[in-house]
Amino acid sequence: MREAMKDALEFWVREANIDGYRCDVAGMVPIDFWEDASEALHQIKPVFMLAEDEDEICLLNKAFNANYGWALHHLLNELAQGTAKASDLQAHIQEQQQKLPQGAFSMQFTTNHDENSWNGTVFERMGEAYPTLAALTFVVEGIPLIYTGQEAGLNKQLQFFEKDEVDWTDLSMTKFYQQLIQLKKNNPALWNGKAGGQMSYLTTNKPDQVLAFKRTLGNNSVYALFNLSNNTVDIQAEMELEGDFEDALTGEVLTLPTKLELNPWAYRIISVNQ
Question: What is the pTM of this model?
Answer without folding.
Answer: 0.96
